[in-house]
Amino acid sequence: SGTPERPRLCIRRSLNHIYAQIVDDINGLTLVQVGSRGKDFEQKIAGKEVTKTDISKMVGELLAEQAKEKGVTKVVFDRKGYLFHGRVKALAEAARGKGLVF
What we know:
Blueprint: E1 8-13, E2 18-24, E3 29-35, H1 39-45, H2 52-69, E4 76-78, H3 87-97
Parallel strand pairs: 1-4
Antiparallel strand pairs: 1-2, 2-3
Helix pairs in contact: 2-3
């Protein structure tokens, strides 16, 4: 479970979208939340041909950037039973590439 010092990065995916959030379970706070359904995100990919894996990478990068703004650098990765493969792996590696440690 996530603590204030090391919150939990949990992901959820559907057939077409992926969502990620960083949660402090002790205090019951969602610190950062990013999904592939937001208006800002849809404007980013408008008119481009991108795969679901590319979208997952963008979500991971955006999540890491927002986490840094909130002062979060270390997290616990919660893949919720999903295999560490494909879109889940793409999101995780993109977040690591932008500086999140897990």
